[in-house]
Write a sequence for this structure.
């Protein structure tokens, strides 16, 4: 069992940055592929970024490439999402998730993830 707790969201002006964090409980954190997803009001949850257990491999949705960076610190059981050059369309609840499946260089479906956090809200004003 893995419990995930996100933090770092907030209200920011367009062009600003935030660093989202997700702390995981459990000793097996380092064995999980970790991902970030987001869900805007009235829309389906969508994939943002994923990182392999070692941190050596990452994969991003097209909307995140060049602006977002996913990273992890296995010693702290934490995965991060650095979000830069924020746009109003980035407004959403951001969720971290853990997958026992191996890392893949393709956009995953959310059903591939086994554990989810409660989300942290990011609101970008224009």
């Amino acid at each position: 069992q893995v419990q995930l707790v996100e933090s770092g969201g907030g209200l920011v002006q367009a062009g600003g940055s935030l660093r989202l964090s997700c702390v995981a409980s459990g000793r097996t954190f380092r064995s999980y592929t970790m991902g970030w997803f987001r869900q805007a009001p009235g829309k389906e949850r969508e994939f943002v970024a994923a990182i392999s257990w070692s941190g050596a491999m990452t994969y991003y949705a097209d909307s995140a490439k060049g602006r977002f960076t996913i990273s992890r610190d296995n010693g702290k059981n934490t995965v991060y999402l650095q979000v830069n050059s924020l746009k109003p369309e980035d407004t959403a609840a951001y969720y971290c998730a853990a997958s026992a499946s191996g890392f893949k260089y393709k956009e995953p479906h959310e059903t591939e993830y086994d554990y989810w956090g409660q989300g942290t809200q990011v609101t970008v004003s224009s």
In short: The CA atoms of residues 48 and 62 lie 8 Å apart.
